[in-house]
Amino acid sequence: METFAKIDAAVNFDIADEAVVDRLGGRVCCKECGQMFHLKFNPPKVSGKCDKCGGELYTRDDDKPESIKHRLEVYRESTAPLIDFYKNKGNLVDVDARPAPEAVLKEFETKFPKN
Ligand SMILES: [Zn+2]
Protein backbone atom coordinates (compact mmCIF):
# COMPACT_ATOMS: atom_id res chain seq x y z
CA MET A 1 0.00 0.00 0.00
CA GLU A 2 2.07 2.89 -1.27
CA THR A 3 -0.35 5.77 -1.36
CA PHE A 4 1.99 8.76 -1.38
CA ALA A 5 5.54 7.81 -2.25
CA LYS A 6 7.62 4.99 -3.59
CA ILE A 7 10.19 4.00 -0.99
CA ASP A 8 13.58 2.92 -2.34
CA ALA A 9 15.13 2.04 1.01
CA ALA A 10 14.42 2.10 4.72
CA VAL A 11 17.43 2.64 6.97
CA ASN A 12 17.60 0.96 10.35
CA PHE A 13 20.15 2.65 12.64
CA ASP A 14 20.89 -0.30 14.87
CA ILE A 15 21.79 0.48 18.49
CA ALA A 16 21.21 -0.97 21.96
CA ASP A 17 18.81 0.74 24.40
CA GLU A 18 21.59 1.42 26.91
CA ALA A 19 23.56 3.33 24.28
CA VAL A 20 20.47 5.38 23.41
CA VAL A 21 20.00 6.28 27.07
CA ASP A 22 23.70 7.12 27.33
CA ARG A 23 23.60 9.43 24.32
CA LEU A 24 20.26 11.16 24.84
CA GLY A 25 20.62 11.26 28.61
CA GLY A 26 23.75 13.41 28.51
CA ARG A 27 22.40 16.07 26.17
CA VAL A 28 22.06 19.63 27.40
CA CYS A 29 20.89 22.67 25.51
CA CYS A 30 21.57 26.42 25.87
CA LYS A 31 18.55 28.44 27.01
CA GLU A 32 19.77 31.47 25.07
CA CYS A 33 21.08 30.28 21.70
CA GLY A 34 19.97 26.61 21.49
CA GLN A 35 23.51 25.24 21.15
CA MET A 36 23.64 21.54 22.11
CA PHE A 37 26.31 19.92 24.30
CA HIS A 38 26.81 16.42 25.62
CA LEU A 39 28.13 15.96 29.14
CA LYS A 40 30.14 12.90 28.10
CA PHE A 41 30.94 13.30 24.40
CA ASN A 42 31.02 17.08 23.92
CA PRO A 43 31.02 18.82 27.31
CA PRO A 44 30.93 22.62 27.70
CA LYS A 45 34.22 24.23 28.81
CA VAL A 46 32.53 25.59 31.95
CA SER A 47 29.99 23.30 33.61
CA GLY A 48 26.41 24.51 33.10
CA LYS A 49 27.42 27.39 30.79
CA CYS A 50 27.25 27.70 27.00
CA ASP A 51 30.65 28.01 25.24
CA LYS A 52 29.18 30.30 22.59
CA CYS A 53 27.15 32.82 24.60
CA GLY A 54 27.56 31.98 28.31
CA GLY A 55 23.85 31.09 28.56
CA GLU A 56 22.51 28.61 31.07
CA LEU A 57 22.40 24.95 29.97
CA TYR A 58 19.39 22.74 30.66
CA THR A 59 18.08 19.26 29.85
CA ARG A 60 15.12 19.30 27.46
CA ASP A 61 12.04 17.42 28.71
CA ASP A 62 12.50 15.06 25.77
CA ASP A 63 15.93 14.01 27.03
CA LYS A 64 14.98 13.32 30.64
CA PRO A 65 15.24 9.65 31.73
CA GLU A 66 11.48 9.03 31.94
CA SER A 67 10.97 10.58 28.50
CA ILE A 68 13.75 8.49 26.98
CA LYS A 69 12.17 5.35 28.44
CA HIS A 70 8.83 6.39 26.98
CA ARG A 71 10.37 7.17 23.58
CA LEU A 72 11.96 3.71 23.51
CA GLU A 73 8.58 2.10 24.32
CA VAL A 74 6.87 4.06 21.56
CA TYR A 75 9.67 3.07 19.18
CA ARG A 76 9.25 -0.61 20.03
CA GLU A 77 5.47 -0.50 19.59
CA SER A 78 5.08 1.63 16.50
CA THR A 79 8.40 1.82 14.67
CA ALA A 80 10.25 -1.44 15.25
CA PRO A 81 7.57 -3.56 13.47
CA LEU A 82 8.52 -1.69 10.28
CA ILE A 83 11.92 -3.39 10.35
CA ASP A 84 10.34 -6.74 9.44
CA PHE A 85 7.98 -5.05 7.00
CA TYR A 86 10.83 -3.54 4.97
CA LYS A 87 13.04 -6.60 5.45
CA ASN A 88 10.31 -8.69 3.80
CA LYS A 89 10.06 -6.20 0.97
CA GLY A 90 13.82 -6.49 0.51
CA ASN A 91 14.69 -2.82 0.90
CA LEU A 92 15.87 -2.61 4.50
CA VAL A 93 19.41 -1.28 4.98
CA ASP A 94 21.02 -1.79 8.38
CA VAL A 95 23.53 0.76 9.65
CA ASP A 96 25.47 0.00 12.82
CA ALA A 97 24.85 3.08 14.98
CA ARG A 98 27.05 2.01 17.90
CA PRO A 99 30.33 3.70 16.82
CA ALA A 100 31.00 7.45 17.02
CA PRO A 101 28.80 9.67 14.78
CA GLU A 102 31.57 10.17 12.17
CA ALA A 103 31.95 6.40 11.72
CA VAL A 104 28.18 5.95 11.45
CA LEU A 105 28.03 8.66 8.79
CA LYS A 106 30.87 6.96 6.92
CA GLU A 107 29.05 3.62 6.87
CA PHE A 108 25.87 5.38 5.76
CA GLU A 109 27.73 7.08 2.89
CA THR A 110 29.27 3.76 1.84
CA LYS A 111 25.79 2.28 1.53
CA PHE A 112 24.33 5.37 -0.12
CA PRO A 113 27.10 6.84 -2.28
CA LYS A 114 26.54 10.34 -3.65
CA ASN A 115 26.24 10.42 -7.41
ZN1 LIG B 1 24.34 29.75 24.07
Q: Can you tell me about this structure?
A:
- With 115 residues, the chain is α+β, with helices and mostly antiparallel strands.
- It is built from four helices and five strands, in the order E-H-E-E-E-H-H-E-H.
- It has one domain: P-loop containing nucleotide triphosphate hydrolases (Rossmann fold).
- The protein has helices at residues 17-25, 65-79, 81-89, 101-111, and strands spanning 10-14, 27-30, 36-38, 57-58, 92-96.
- The chain has a three-stranded antiparallel β-sheet. It has a two-stranded parallel ribbon with strand order 1-5.
- A hairpin with a 5-residue loop joins strand 2 (27-30) and strand 3 (36-38).
- The relative contact order is 0.18.
- The structure holds zinc ion.
- Zinc ion binds at residues 30, 32-33, 35, 50, 52-53, 55.
Helices and strands, with pairings:
Layout: E1 10-14, H1 17-25, E2 27-30, E3 36-38, E4 57-58, H2 65-79, H3 81-89, E5 92-96, H4 101-111
Parallel strand pairs: 1-5
Antiparallel strand pairs: 2-3, 2-4
Helix pairs in contact: 1-2
The chain binds zinc ion.
Which keywords apply here?
single chain, 115 residues, alpha+beta, Rossmann fold, 3-stranded antiparallel β-sheet, 4 helices, 5 strands
Short description:
The chain is an alpha+beta fold and 115 residues long.
| List of distinct ligands in this structure | zinc ion
Per the CATH scheme, the topology name is Rossmann fold
Helix content: 25-40%
Side by side, the strands of the main sheet go 3-2-4
CATH architectural arrangement: 3-Layer(aba) Sandwich
**CATH homology superfamily name:** P-loop containing nucleotide triphosphate hydrolases
Tally of DSSP β-strands: 5
Strand content: 15-25%
Structural class: alpha+beta
Average pLDDT value? 92
**The CATH top-level class label:** Alpha Beta
pLDDT < 50 stretches? none
Report Rg: 18 Å
* Inertia-based shape: globular
The largest sheet is: 3 strands, antiparallel
Number of helices: 4
Order of helices and strands: EHEEEHHEH
